[in-house]
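Researcher: Next sequence.
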Amino acid sequence: MEDRVIAGATVERIPLVDFPNFPISIPPLAQQRRTATAFSAFTELIEINERRIELLEDLARSLRRYPQQV
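Model: Next structure:
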C-alpha cells in the first residue's frame, strides 16, 4: 500500500481507487464497549462540572449584586 501513496506539496494521500482496500484496524467489540463506557463517564463528569460552573457564576453575580448582605 505504501508504494501507492501519492505525495503532494505538503500532504501524502491515498488514491481514491485504493481506499476500499485500505486496511483499518478495529478493536474487538468488548474494547469498543469499554471505550464507549469511559467516554460516557467523562461526558457525564463534564456536564456535572459545567453545571457547577453555572451555579458558581450565579452565586458570584449575586454576591456582587448584594455585597453588604453576606
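Model: The chain has one domain: 2-69. The first helix runs from residue 29 to 65.
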